[in-house]
């Protein structure tokens, strides 16, 4: 399953990753190549603590408009390897 992540680069050349499908789920990576791993790890922790059902991934037209004024970009991150490790009913 592909989920949107908003990626921003800070002055220290670190990448901040926000995952709007997972409320409050924000993480960092030190390189572009580390974004997927960092996002998957953050979602794994989020799902372990999740008490609300996980819905279907947001569609592009449903992305939060609050990101429109920020400098960064959207990317899709494959969360299937993470989500598949949780039994049905956990996190959704």
From TrEMBL:
Pfam family, one: HicB_lk_antitox
Listed Gene3D superfamilies: 3.30.160.250
Top-level lineage group: Bacteria
Domain HicB-like antitoxin of toxin-antitoxin system: 3-79
Protein name (Swiss-Prot/TrEMBL): HicB-like antitoxin of toxin-antitoxin system domain-containing protein
Origin species: Cognatilysobacter lacus
